[in-house]
Specification:
Elements: H1 5-15, E1 18-22, E2 39-43, E3 55-58, E4 66-74, E5 79-86, H2 90-99, E6 105-111, H3 135-145, E7 157-162, H4 165-185, H5 190-205, E8 209-216, H6 226-253, E9 257-261, H7 268-274, E10 281-290, H8 304-307
Parallel strand pairs: 3-5
Antiparallel strand pairs: 1-2, 2-3, 4-5, 4-6, 7-8, 8-10, 9-10
Helix pairs in contact: 3-6, 4-5, 4-7
């Protein structure tokens, strides 16, 4: 019989009568202080880990759809069970999980669709604790960056890891000259120019680690016409940006804070020369990394109606 485990559970759910014998708010027959936070019942004509019908948590979504499984083990009952989470929102699945992690019971949630809220945990962090980032952690984060998609699978990303204060100092000195030139060209007063340079320098120097993310121009295909060549360059840069996003997400998943800074884009040759990078390595950004020393402010997302059209 073809189909994956979710399909098999779907069939069981479709074929069997769902009996809710413990409605939301009712008390547990043996532990009356426990009130069911959701409808709870079983599938008639089935047998679960306790020898009774397979247990079901029923949520409020309306459709009779399997949204997840809850694995439980009870050291007092000495049994293990699989409970079905039917028509449950993410919050309801969490409620079912919470009540399955009490007393002698432990539970593990297997949601049917991968939860996405972890993506919202990544935020730009600009202040760091002084402790260094271990080399193995940096290596894991960079390895994760390399799983990004890339045009022609050319993997054009290159990383210069500045894990010594000396390397970061070399970088800031090199970028400061170009930054000063640009600010003076904007007509800013000298004091303001110096203040901005000092702030930028401090920001980089106080980060325990930094990575210059580059695009290697030798990986690009060559075209006779400007249009295709420009598109090829954009594709390579887009690929590097995807690796950059992987890097930021991986850092966040490792408990690190990070921010992408655009400064190297405005001083590419100075960066290459100061760090002795190959001339084909086009600096795209600077990622500062370290253990967070700030809590980012809540972020407002643009409304879906403004950013998406369904056609
Ligand atoms: C291409 C790019 C360039 C950025 N450059 C800078 C920068 O130079 N300095 C800085 O403090 N943040 C920089 N950021 C971080 C953004 O300010 C930040 O992502 C944005 O404010 C949203 O906040 P969040 O990352 O916490 O969601 C940059 C982000 C991107 C994607």
């Amino acid at each position: 019989m073809a189909g994956e485990i979710w399909d098999y559970f779907d069939r069981l759910l479709a074929d069997c009568e769902l009996v809710i014998d413990r409605p939301k708010g009712s008390a547990h027959p043996r532990y009356p202080q426990f009130l069911y936070p959701l409808d709870y019942g079983y599938l008639a004509g089935t047998r679960g880990g306790d020898g009774e019908g397979i247990d079901v948590w029923l949520g409020s979504r309306g459709e009779r759809v399997l949204d997840g499984l809850l694995l439980t083990v009870d050291l007092v009952e000495r049994d293990a069970e699989v409970k079905l989470l039917v028509a449950c929102t993410e919050a309801e699945m969490q409620i079912a999980l919470d009540v399955s992690n009490a007393e002698s019971l432990r539970g593990l949630l297997l949601p049917r669709s991968a939860p996405l809220n972890w993506l919202a945990q990544r935020r730009s962090i600009r202040r760091f604790q002084p402790e260094p980032v271990p080399r193995q952690v940096l290596e894991r984060v960079l390895a994760a960056a390399c799983w990004a998609p890339s045009a022609h699978d050319r993997q054009p990303w290159r990383f210069a890891v500045l894990h010594t204060a000396q390397a970061r100092s070399l970088l800031t000195e090199a970028m400061a000259a170009d930054f000063r030139r640009d600010l003076e060209a904007d007509g800013l007063p000298v004091q303001e120019v110096e203040l901005r340079i000092r702030r930028a320098r401090q920001r980089v120097l106080q980060a325990p680690a930094a990575v210059i993310v580059c695009c290697d121009a030798t990986t690009l295909d060559a075209y006779p016409d400007e249009t295709r060549q420009a598109a090829e360059q954009i594709m390579a840069v887009q690929s590097v940006a995807m690796a950059g996003q992987n890097l930021l997400l991986a850092a966040s998943a490792q408990g690190l804070g990070a921010v992408w800074m655009c400064a190297p884009l405005f001083a590419p040759q100075a960066v290459q020369q100061a760090l002795s990078l190959p001339t084909s390595w086009q600096p795209q950004g600077l990622v500062l990394l370290g253990y967070p020393a700030e809590q980012p402010r809540p972020k407002l997302l643009r409304p879906e109606t403004e950013i998406t059209v369904y056609l």
